[in-house]
């Protein structure tokens, strides 16, 4: 890729009198995915992963991204004039150190207001001293000539039969958690938190069924800020009948001026843009951010109610049926040697099978269908132009999820195509063993994800291998497939597991240039028992998709895990078979047969 876009950016930087600019992968709501309008990193560098930060000076440029995207970024940054910085790897400089090594004291570093949060700005400003971090307007507006506009789509109501709780009930619970005696106004800018609170869904962000929105909560009132024309008459009546005041999206800043800054609470301060935060300072008062309790709505949202849990179970049946049809199709299609199957075509097939359900809305993330060495890229996405033919003698990894009105799914299965090596069989068995060990865990209340992580990761460690991504992430209910606040990873997270949380379980092994293996189910945390020692929790496996048993080394898997797998497969057949036609049912019966 030519470096002329860097030249355009540097010219604009010179006009704004900044020596460097920091460009995050973000929009004003700081979700995981963004509209094309905000994909400045993709436009500038060609890198289209979902996480990264580019820093540009007048001479140098670099992209920081995490381990999921190391190989992808290496390929996409070739000839871009931008070097790759591998986050959390030995020898990688932080952005602060990198900038200080290239700039002189008091040189100015710019950040676009709408793409940086207040807390990020405050922290970085102190860490960059003696450099001067400043706010600037959108520097890309005049240099990105074909930049798409921000789009706002119609908003949908999530009926109570799927939500399981009214807006007014959620409002009361939020107010109770805030625990303020005086006046307050609680600000939300995270779109999935708002969608959950108001029982609405949207189409503004691909894969995440949320609308661009802001919200404000007082003891007596709920305010929802959405774009004019996106709320139909029926939804308007529903919301107003539950005490919601609907306001124009662009009036949010002006609305904040009606309140004393001392009364404002941000939820949380790292999820609201610099512009939206600083507008509240115009009164001159000290802005009070409720950092410790900033995730009140996120915490409530993470604990699914009985209706949401039953919705997840329904979604798993629908998704399991689609997976059976997909896996059978792959197996049958690969027997047709005169009609090669590519990753791109395969990636589109499971969505077609999902679409046979009236409750299916769309994908929960871009499908990952990766054969052979491509599977060593954790977030590889095939395209019509760049893909591999699914051939033989290696693994095919499929990681895909669906958005259903009743719930969200995320499943990974790795299947053997042709003959595989003993090393591959060993690695496959160890990944599966780690996944099962986490699924079988019993643990006391107060347990954090980092304390559970070794159950899945330990088997991978046992052969001197590792995966750098997390083992588990929270999953939303017909919301974001990657949801907090809980996680299962090596890095500590103070959030403890609670009954009702839904979390992924996805250990892996990646051999660069050779193969990749990942197995993933979704787990529901629930109470196991109570005794004199306290209350203990366990997981219920929600996902209903068969595993490929052919690569399993039985002795290595062990008797307890074999029993778990046999019982799991019996359940998969029992729950899915009533929804399958004869040929699919017989195929599933074969694939879920007990391992002797």
What is the element layout, followed by pairings?
Elements: H1 4-15, E1 20-24, H2 40-45, E2 53-57, E3 61-65, H3 70-76, E4 83-86, H4 95-100, E5 108-112, H5 118-127, E6 132-136, E7 156-157, H6 160-163, H7 167-178, E8 185-188, H8 191-197, E9 200-201, E10 214-217, E11 222-226, H9 233-241, E12 244-248, H10 252-256, E13 264-267, H11 274-278, H12 296-302, H13 306-333, H14 343-354, E14 360-363, E15 368-371, E16 394-400, E17 402-404, E18 407-408, E19 411-417, H15 422-439, E20 442-444, H16 449-461, E21 472-474, E22 483-488, E23 502-505, E24 508-511, E25 515-518, E26 521-531, E27 534-541, H17 554-557, H18 559-576, H19 582-591
Parallel strand pairs: 1-5, 3-4, 5-6, 8-13, 11-12
Antiparallel strand pairs: 1-2, 2-3, 7-9, 8-10, 10-11, 14-17, 15-16, 16-19, 17-18, 20-27, 21-22, 23-26, 24-25, 26-27
Helix pairs in contact: 13-14, 15-16
């Amino acid at each position: 890729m030519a470096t002329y876009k860097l030249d355009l950016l540097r010219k604009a930087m010179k006009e704004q009198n900044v020596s460097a600019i920091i460009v995050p992968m973000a929009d004003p709501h700081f979700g995981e995915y963004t509209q094309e309008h905000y994909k400045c990193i993709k436009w500038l560098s060609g890198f289209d992963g979902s996480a990264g930060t580019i820093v540009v000076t007048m001479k140098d440029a670099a992209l920081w991204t995490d381990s999921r995207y190391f190989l992808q970024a290496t390929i996409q940054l070739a000839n871009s004039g931008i070097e790759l910085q591998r986050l959390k790897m030995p020898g990688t400089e932080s952005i602060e150190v990198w900038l200080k090594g290239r700039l002189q004291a008091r040189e100015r570093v710019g950040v676009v207001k709408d793409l940086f949060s207040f807390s990020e700005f405050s922290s970085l400003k102190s860490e960059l001293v003696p450099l001067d971090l400043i706010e600037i307007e959108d520097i890309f507006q005049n240099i990105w000539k074909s930049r798409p506009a921000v789009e706002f789509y119609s908003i949908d109501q999530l009926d109570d039969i799927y939500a399981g709780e009214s807006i007014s009930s959620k409002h009361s619970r939020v107010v109770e958690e805030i625990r303020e005696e005086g006046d307050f106004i609680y600000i939300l800018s995270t779109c999935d938190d708002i969608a959950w609170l108001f029982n609405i869904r949207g189409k503004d962000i691909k894969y995440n069924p949320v609308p661009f929105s802001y919200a404000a909560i007082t003891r007596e009132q709920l305010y929802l800020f959405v774009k004019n024309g996106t709320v139909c008459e029926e939804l308007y009546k529903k919301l107003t009948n539950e005490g919601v005041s609907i306001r124009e999206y662009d009036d949010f800043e002006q609305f904040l001026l009606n309140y004393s800054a001392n009364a404002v609470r941000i939820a949380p301060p790292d999820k609201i843009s610099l512009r939206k935060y600083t507008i509240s300072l115009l009164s001159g008062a000290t802005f009070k951010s409720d950092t410790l309790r900033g995730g009140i709505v996120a915490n409530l949202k993470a604990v699914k109610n009985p209706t949401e849990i039953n919705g997840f179970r329904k979604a798993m049946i629908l998704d399991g049926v689609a997976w059976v049809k997909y896996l059978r199709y792959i197996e049958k299609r690969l027997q047709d040697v005169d009609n090669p199957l590519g990753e791109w075509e395969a990636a589109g097939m499971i969505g077609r099978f999902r679409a046979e359900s009236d409750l299916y809305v769309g994908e929960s993330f871009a499908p990952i269908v990766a054969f052979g060495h491509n599977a060593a890229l954790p977030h590889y996405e095939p395209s019509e132009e760049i893909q591999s033919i699914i051939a033989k003698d290696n693994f095919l990894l499929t990681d895909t999820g669906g958005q259903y009105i009743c719930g969200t799914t995320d499943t990974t299965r790795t299947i053997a195509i042709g003959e595989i090596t003993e090393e591959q069989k060993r690695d496959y068995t160890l990944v599966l063993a780690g996944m099962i060990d986490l699924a079988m865990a019993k643990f006391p209340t107060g347990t954090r994800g980092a304390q559970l992580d070794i159950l899945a990761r330990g088997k991978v460690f046992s052969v001197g291998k590792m995966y750098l991504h997390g083992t588990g992430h929270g999953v939303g209910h017909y919301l974001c497939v990657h949801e907090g606040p809980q996680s299962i990873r090596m890095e500590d997270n103070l959030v403890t597991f609670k009954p009702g949380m839904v979390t992924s379980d996805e250990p892996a092994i990646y051999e660069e240039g050779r193969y990749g293996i990942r197995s993933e189910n979704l787990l529901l945390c629930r109470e196991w028992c109570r005794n004199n020692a306290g209350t203990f929790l366990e997981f219920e496996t929600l996902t209903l998709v068969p595993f490929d048993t052919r690569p399993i080394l039985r002795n290595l898997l062990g008797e307890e895990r074999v029993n778990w797998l046999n019982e799991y497969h019996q359940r998969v057949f029992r729950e899915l078979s009533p929804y399958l036609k004869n040929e699919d049912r017989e195929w599933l019966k074969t694939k879920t047969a007990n391992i002797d």
